[in-house]
Amino acid sequence: MDIRVLEYFLMTAREENITKAASLLHVTQPTLSRQLMQLEAELGTKLFERTNHSVILTNEGMLFRRRAQDIVSLAEKAKNEVTQNEDTLSGIISIGCNELKSVQELAKNMTVFQERYPKVKFELYSGSNEEIQERMEQGTLDMGLFLQPFGMEKYETLPMRTKERWGVLIHKDAALAQQSAVYPGDLVGTLVFTIHINTPAHAELKKWSGEFARDMDFGANYNVLHNAVIVARERKGAVICLEQDCHYDDMKFLPLDPQLSVGSALAWKKGRVISRAARAFLQFLQEQRVQDT
């Protein structure tokens, strides 16, 4: 199994058509079909369901696609790291980010860094703490912007200055929207959308709610806020979330009272060898922090 064959597989999975995929890959259709069959034989499983006009991933194919994407991404990342020009800093720095206000703080530093090193590019991945951690363990991310509290024993960290404030996004026509804040017990009787359970942040929110937590109607959990807001707006529910810089139509943000604010931190694996560009960016961030104190 080589990277080229994985790229063939991913293109075919995306296009769901061997003829079209072969054209985009600049290979003949028989060549592509043969490579895919050899891949299936090597893996000992069927990756595609084939019809006269299309190919659809099997369940095994869907699982393999995720791993193939990680392998191809990691191979490209490794290639970029070892082929950097020693005289000119270049390469791709991959960062996982939660939906946090501190992203703006990070973005300002990225802008200044790129003005100094224009050949360095950034690749951003949005996800939860757990999703970012998984990708960092796989090596597909150089660093991640984590919401605290979070287990950081295996990481070096740089705390962000921005504080993240918990609150509720609720439809502007809801009775609760007339208040200036949300108090423990206010959400009882309202359909509530919250972040995934079994996370430190969820435990903090449950602690804040106190005895009312068991009486709340949790309609769904989410890992991407935008999708939760769309559903909550349609169903006139409330989304427990961090305060955002963006605006959502027909929704109003109310802070929690007593206030619940948390920090965030940029983290990278202890002892892991990272690219010259990533090392330079971390050094730049640390120098900026010293200058600002």
Secondary-structure topology with pairs:
Layout: H1 3-15, H2 18-25, H3 29-43, E1 48-50, E2 55-57, H4 59-82, E3 91-97, H5 102-116, E4 120-126, H6 129-138, E5 143-147, E6 155-159, E7 164-171, E8 191-195, H7 200-209, E9 217-222, H8 225-235, E10 238-242, E11 251-255, E12 261-262, E13 264-269, H9 276-292
Parallel strand pairs: 3-4, 3-5, 8-9, 8-10
Antiparallel strand pairs: 1-2, 5-13, 6-13, 7-10, 7-11, 7-12
Helix pairs in contact: 1-2, 1-4, 2-3
Give an overview of the whole structure.
The protein is of the alpha/beta class and 293 residues long. The chain folds into three domains: 3-80, Winged helix-like DNA-binding domain superfamily/Winged helix DNA-binding domain (Arc Repressor Mutant, subunit A, Orthogonal Bundle), CATH 1.10.10.10; 88-161 and 264-292, Periplasmic binding protein-like II (D-Maltodextrin-Binding Protein, domain 2); 164-262, Periplasmic binding protein-like II (D-Maltodextrin-Binding Protein, domain 2). Helix content is 42%, strand content 23%. It is built from nine helices and 13 strands. The protein has helices at residues 3-15, 18-25, 29-43, 59-82, 102-116, 129-138, 200-209, 225-235, 276-292; strands spanning 48-50, 55-57, 91-97, 120-126, 143-147, 155-159, 164-171, 191-195, 217-222, 238-242, 251-255, 261-262, 264-269. Strands 7, 8, 9, 10, 11 and 12 form a six-stranded mixed β-sheet that branches. It has a five-stranded mixed β-sheet with strand order 4-3-5-13-6, with helices on both faces. Strands 1-2 form a two-stranded antiparallel sheet. Strand 8 (191-195), helix 7 (200-209) and strand 9 form a beta-alpha-beta unit. The N and C termini lie far apart (52 Å). The mean pLDDT is 88. It holds the Pfam family LysR_substrate. InterPro entries: HTH-type_LysR_regulators (IPR050950), LysR_HTH_N (IPR000847), LysR_subst-bd (IPR005119), WH-like_DNA-bd_sf (IPR036388), WH_DNA-bd_sf (IPR036390). One of its GO terms (cellular component) is cytosol. Residues 1-58 form the HTH lysR-type domain. GO terms for molecular function: DNA binding; DNA-binding transcription factor activity.
